[in-house]
């Protein structure tokens, strides 16, 4: 009786985790930066909220479209490679067997064992064996455009809602420091959470996300202040 592999690996989360972290980070940074820039220019509170809401909607749709297009392109490349491999398996199976055996031999198997492993795997699923070991494709890392698009859009909207809610409850001179401080805390928490889920060092990831978020907010604050003074 075969043994069932019960271990859970974080690579299975790579697709939605990347899209979710990117979307949430973009939502927080872009919306907070937009709000800080507009507030620094001296905009009225109602105009500030309108700008933030418009940024949330536009950003979420942009993230969804961008992820769908980019991941669809990745999927097209994967499908093209699989079709070419399928054709090669049909046209010259002996060469493909030798190619797969050479891969296993390069990984440390004895030549005879490498040929036997390649033969058995190809007898069971030739395309799957070549997809995994020659092309580096697997079900865990396969491109999923719709999943990436939906995840990015929802994550962006959630991330953008945080600084927008802060600006809603703040007013006057408190808007800029309140949005900047809370957004920085949100970014640090997001970086740490993503690192923990992905198995990466938490402090390093949090510091990296926080630094670039703070830089973006500082730049837009300066731009808003300059244009506000010129208006």
Q: What would you say this structure looks like, in words?
A:
This protein has one domain. The chain has 7 helices and no strands. Helices cover 82% and strands 0% of the residues. With 231 residues, the protein is mainly alpha-helical. The protein has helices spanning 14-40, 45-91, 93-106, 111-133, 145-169, 175-198, 202-230. The radius of gyration is 25 Å and the shape is elongated.
Topology (SSEs and partners):
Elements: H1 14-40, H2 45-91, H3 93-106, H4 111-133, H5 145-169, H6 175-198, H7 202-230
Number of strands: 0
Count of helical regions: 7
- SS-based class: mainly alpha
Number of domains: 1
Low-pLDDT parts are: 1-7, 9-13
Question: What's the N-to-C terminus distance?
Answer: 77 Å
* Radius of gyration based on Cα positions: 25 Å
Shape: elongated
Mean pLDDT across all amino acids: 84
Biggest sheet: strands, sense, closure? none
H/E element order: HHHHHHH
Share of residues in strands? under 5%
Approximately how much helix is present in the residues? over 70%
């Amino acid at each position: 009786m075969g043994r069932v592999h019960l271990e859970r690996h974080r690579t299975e989360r790579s697709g939605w985790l990347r899209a979710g972290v990117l979307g949430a980070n973009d939502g927080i940074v872009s919306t907070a930066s937009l709000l800080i820039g507009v507030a620094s220019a001296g905009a009225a509170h109602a105009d500030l909220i309108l700008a933030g809401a418009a940024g949330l909607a536009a950003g979420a749709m942009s993230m969804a479209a961008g992820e769908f297009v980019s991941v669809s392109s990745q999927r097209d490349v994967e499908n093209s490679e699989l079709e070419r491999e399928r054709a090669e398996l049909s046209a010259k199976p002996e060469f493909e067997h030798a190619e797969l055996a050479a891969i296993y031999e390069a990984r440390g198997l004895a030549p005879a064992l490498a040929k036997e492993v390649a033969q058995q795997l190809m007898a069971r699923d030739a395309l799957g064996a070549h997809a995994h070991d020659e092309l580096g494709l697997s079900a865990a890392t396969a491109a999923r455009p719709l999943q990436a698009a939906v995840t990015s859009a929802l994550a962006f909207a959630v991330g953008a809602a945080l600084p927008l809610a802060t600006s809603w409850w703040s007013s006057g001179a408190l808007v800029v420091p309140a949005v900047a401080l809370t957004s920085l805390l949100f970014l640090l928490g997001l970086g740490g959470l993503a690192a923990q889920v992905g198995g990466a060092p938490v402090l390093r990831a949090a510091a990296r996300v926080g630094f670039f978020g703070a830089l973006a907010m500082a730049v837009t604050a300066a731009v808003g202040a300059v244009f506000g003074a010129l208006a």
